[in-house]
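hi!! sorry for the late reply, been swamped w classes. u asked for the two structures so here they r. pasted raw, havent cleaned anything up. first the sequence of the first protein and right below it the tokens
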Amino acid sequence: MRPKTIDEIVGQQHLVGQNKIIYRMVKAKRLTSMILYGPPGIGKTSIASAIAGSTEFAFRQLNAAIDGKKELKIVAEEAKMSGTVVLLLDEIHRLDKTKQDFLLPMLESGKIVLIGATTENPYISISPAIRSRTEIFELHSLDPKDISQALNRALSDTKNGLKKYNVSLTEDARKLLITRSNGDLRNALNGLELAVLSSSSSDDESGKTVIDVPIIEESIQKHNISADKNGDSHYNLLSAFQKSIRGSDTDAALHYLARLILSGDLISIIRRLTVIVFEDIGLANPQAWVHTMAAIEAAEKVGFPEARIPLSNAVIELCLSPKSNASLTAIDSAINDIQNNQTGDIPNHIKDAHYNGAEKLGNGVGYLYPHDFDNDFVAQAYLPDKLSDAKYFHPKGNGKFETALKNQYQKLKELQRKGRH
């Protein structure tokens, strides 16, 4: 059922639709090397095959993880003898330097049009040398209409599809198949094929074999939304999880938490919650720190599936809690000053004076011990002279605790200012 021409491709219309970039390249027969990246089963190989079919160029397929320089040489020789070859190189993120160095001159000459396919972000996982010689196109999971269209083609195609089996797919079974595929057309077609081939008896008066919900449930696996814990899609999922909590969208956060739970990656969930409670909630609600750490400890003790319960408690509280990143911006601002050589000498009166000879150097001389004064406070300089007016902490006053901190901070800053002048 793989498309033979660019017009037969299902989905990815932002690239292959009429007058879109790949469509225009094919129609003009002016191909350039490219990298296609996105989740599995969404058309990377199909697009490469269709490009070759639409342009009548020879099409070869290799895998960067398995095939070696020997196989690349064979493709290169073919390109030298017969003209341009479209080479689909699957898992291009695993291309080693030896194979890369062999390929680069072929890409420069145009003898090989490379179409690299990867599920990983090429800006992270692919070498700059390859990236600079290719266009990078992101593919997206197929929507239900695309999957349904492909299923119709498979059921109505006599030569390459399943029409000869005379089957009828119920509407509920179709919906389940589309839902379970989660935008992965290969997964949907594999499930449909298994359902048809394992159901040979006629179930209705027309003589057709009916494919219903129970058959589809047995024929297609539940899609593991984030099976690759090191893949780009998994990091996108973690990013969406944190940003939904930061944005106080409880339902979105629970959605992404559910996807992470189904991936089985408890460690990543715990790490991300630990960051969130200090980065995004911060001083606005210190009680959230206590509750989140308790939820994390409980989740670690019980493991999945029960861990989902304390994790859900923590996520809901974090979403509905007041937010503040004042402590994050404060330390980052201080680090930025130091990285830009804004340091200066530590004032002598607060230098270490616990050794013989320290007083001769002026260390500790003039230091005022705060506990000897009313309210355990006395104004004196603590920052280096060149940074005496530095102000890193900018409390927002989100929540009662941070409001109290803000008032106290401003009061103490004013007392320090008056004490210095």
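now the second protein. again sequence first, tokens right under
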Amino acid sequence: MKKVGILGGTFDPPHLGHLFIAQEVQYKLELDEVWFIPAYEAPHKRKSRTDAVLRLEMVEAAIAENPYFRMESIEVDRLGKSYTFDTMELLQEMHPDTAFHFIIGADLVESLHTWHRIDDLVDKLTFVGVGRPGYELMTTYPVTYVDIPELEISSSMIRERVKQGAPVHYLVSGAVFDIIKEQKLYAER
């Protein structure tokens, strides 16, 4: 059976923290691949101001050099709010011989009790929790913990730095930086 990690999010923008988490979990759990799944609209966040097509382009650019990474546009193609349960149901229909490992940060581990159809979801996949500064990996739901060095990088921090004119070169890949610059993303409007 193929073992695939899923890393979902708005990826507005995708940053080196996302790539590092995916690499560490792939390596430590011996996953065949990690699929990045940008949300069209995350149910727990404000709607992204960055167009979904641009976010897909940034994810593709960010992961291009890693043969274990691929992007899956299923949530953007579907439009609307992206609920993990619905996405995983579709992915399991499309890939019945795949065991999915859903990678989440400690902030999401702590909020699993609020997820749509969480009791059904834990039967469909393995949650993989990784540390995040300021959070504990605490939940009553089954989670496989992977210990990785914590990087304090967030998409919101990168957007704020761009808005202020601060450098972000070593927080995002060069290809993502080029897209941010070319498209004038996150700058004061």
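hope this helps!! also noticed smth abt the second:
The mean pLDDT is 92.
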